[in-house]
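I have a small job for you when you get a moment. Would you make up a two-line entry for one protein for me to read? No commentary is needed, just the two lines. Write everything out right here, beneath this request.
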Amino acid sequence: MQTVLQPFNLGPFRVSAEGVLAPRIEGSRPAFSFRWRGRRFEATLDGRMLTIAAAVGGLPFTVDGSPRTPVLAALASAREAMEPGWRLRLPPGSRIMLEADAELDRPPTAVRLVSASARFAWQVSPYLDLLEEAGAVPP
C-alpha cells in the first residue's frame, strides 16, 4: 500500500505532493527566520531566489562621536572579499546590514531552504569574526 501525500500549508508556504514549496498566498514572498551566532537572519523566497538579510553588527563610536576606524576598515575588507550576490551596507542608524541572494538550482523544498540557510550561516562566519575582532558591537 502506497501513501499518497496531499498538499498542505507550512507557515507561509504551500507544500505540493512532491514537496515543492510555493507561496501560500499567491503573489506573496514567503519568509522565515533563523538565528546564528546571536543574530536574527530573515530569509525571503521569491520563486527560486532566496534572499537572506540581517543586522550583523553595530558601529561603535568614540567619545568624540566619530566611528571607530578599525570597524570601518573591517567593513571595507569584508566588502571586497564577499561572495557574488552579497551586499554589506551601513544605513543610517549605525547597524551593519548584510544581504545575500542565492538562486536555488532546483524547485524550492524545505530541505533545500534549510540547506541553503545552513550553507550561508557557515559562509558568513568569517565575516562576523572579522567585524567582531575589529570591535563591531553585536546587534
Observations:
- The chain has two helices and eight strands.
- The chain has a mean pLDDT of 87.
